[in-house]
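User: Let's play a game. I give you a shape written as tokens, and you guess the letters that built it. Ready? Here's round one.
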């Protein structure tokens, strides 16, 4: 059955549209995602966005695109400079800690890290060159305070992403901050002149010592790595204004080309129905969730299920328990299916693998429809229910079970849930090793004794043609 084309909500047009890359003949698709500001550990809201992007990247591949994915790390801004200063560390050393922490958390959540993850400060010349181009085109100017600003009045399209009515908004004031409200729209900063609070952070430029504003980073880095136009650009919903508006203004004023074909925005994660904030004490890191005894796999499940990426997702501890239960149900089913498949040759019943084929088609249709992961999970649990019933009645043949296992693998290439990692306690592993020795020496009395010792510790051991298999009791 041919796969339906992948369609996604485009926040620029506010419509669900098929993904058609610039490279129409080929299948190459460029994806730029705004990376984290590395001054702290990322919270689970940040990772909701990166899990959604990970699902997007895997789905694009599933729909046969070759994804060229770039994400930068923002390693210079007010927050990173302040953090480095407080810790008494050079900026690079300070941000390196949180860059690594992000990569470690990404691993915990089984995120595929893009092959190119540039640090902003390694690309200052590209930013300086882009700012100079904007000055040459009269889209930017050096102000009397020595900083460089983008001239909003030179870009009539400003506000196109958020559908802003500029006439009622432009205040005329200049904005020297990276973040500001819609009510405060004004010429925004591209290059910030050095101030004593910046300490030893600063780069030479035609406008004197200073540092780039946040917005120019993404325009310069995406152009440097992916070209002047990109197919897909993503981030959390809060980045739409002003960050992405400003990226559009800078990039399009410089090139005269449409910067992005398709905008992908992920709505926010709430905690217990509320915005996450330090003062409410509900701002959890990935590490906080692990410290409560959950696995990265369970957190990934909680972040990818529950709500479409285009809707708010409410995080609760009950939701983590539900994720655990759902994964347990999937794992049990997969084990039953695997055991059944091992019972006979693939030809045994392969012809009647219709439920598996139908399931794959239903999942493809759900994913093609704006990444409807919950729709795909709904089909999965229906399949689990039906085939568990059929397995109880011995109505599934090994070949059918093999087709079911393959169908799961296809869906999991997008879900990225993988296998449960069983952490085996040292004392159990020691007994297992001793038992393997005893069996090799054909000392079955000793082997049975060791089996009992393993069971006393709450585990079960099964002898299979491949050796001992350990199962939680
Ligand atoms: P930052 O490090 O602040 O630039 O944020 C990194 C990413 O996390 C950006 O794409 C943000 O839009 C996103 N983000 C921030 N807060 C949340 C949240 N509560 N839920 C989902 N995404 C978020
Ligand atoms: Zn960005």
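Assistant: Ready! My guess for every position:
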């Amino acid at each position: 059955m041919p796969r339906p084309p992948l369609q996604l909500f485009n926040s620029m047009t506010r419509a669900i549209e098929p993904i058609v890359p610039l490279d129409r003949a080929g299948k190459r698709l460029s994806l730029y995602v705004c990376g984290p500001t590395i001054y702290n550990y990322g919270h689970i809201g940040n990772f909701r966005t990166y899990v959604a992007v990970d699902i997007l990247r895997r789905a694009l591949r599933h729909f046969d695109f070759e994804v060229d994915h770039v994400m930068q790390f923002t390693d210079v801004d007010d927050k990173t400079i302040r953090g480095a200063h407080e810790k008494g560390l050079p900026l690079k050393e300070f941000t390196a800690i949180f860059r690594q922490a992000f990569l470690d958390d990404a691993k915990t959540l089984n995120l595929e890290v893009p092959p190119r993850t540039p640090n902003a400060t390694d690309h200052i010349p590209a930013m300086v060159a882009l700012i100079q181009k904007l000055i040459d085109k009269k889209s930017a100017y050096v102000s009397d305070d020595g900083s460089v600003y983008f001239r909003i009045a030179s870009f009539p399209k400003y506000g196109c992403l958020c559908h802003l009515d500029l006439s009622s908004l432009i205040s005329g004031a200049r904005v020297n901050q990276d973040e500001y409200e819609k009510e405060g729209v004004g010429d925004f900063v591209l290059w910030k002149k050095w101030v004593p609070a910046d300490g030893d952070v600063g780069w030479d430029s035609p406008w004197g010592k200073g540092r780039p504003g946040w917005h120019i980073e993404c325009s310069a880095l995406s152009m440097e790595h992916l070209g002047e136009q990109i197919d897909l650009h993503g981030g959390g919903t809060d980045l739409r204004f002003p960050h992405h508006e400003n990226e559009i203004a800078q990039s399009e004023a410089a090139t005269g080309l449409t910067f992005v074909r398709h905008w992908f925005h992920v709505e926010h994660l709430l905690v217990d129905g509320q915005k996450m904030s330090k003062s409410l004490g509900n701002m959890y890191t990935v590490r906080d969730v692990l410290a409560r005894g959950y696995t990265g796999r369970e957190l990934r499940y909680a972040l990818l299920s529950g709500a479409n990426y285009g809707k708010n997702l409410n995080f609760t501890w009950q939701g983590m328990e539900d994720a655990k239960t759902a994964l347990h149900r999937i794992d049990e089913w997969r084990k039953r299916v695997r055991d059944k498949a091992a019972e006979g040759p693939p030809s045994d019943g392969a012809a009647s693998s219709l439920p598996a084929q139908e399931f794959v088609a239903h999942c493809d249709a759900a994913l093609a429809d704006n990444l409807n992961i919950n729709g795909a999970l709904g089909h999965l649990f229906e399949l689990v229910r039906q085939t568990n019933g059929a397995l109880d009645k011995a109505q599934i043949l090994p070949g059918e079970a093999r087709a079911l296992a393959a169908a799961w693998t296809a869906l999991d290439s997008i879900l990225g849930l993988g296998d449960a990692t069983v952490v085996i306690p040292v004392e159990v592993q020691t007994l297992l090793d001793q038992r393997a020795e005893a069996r090799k020496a054909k000392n079955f009395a000793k082997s049975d004794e060791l089996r009992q010792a393993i069971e006393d510790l709450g585990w079960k051991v099964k002898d299979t043609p491949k050796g001992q298999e350990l199962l939680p009791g």
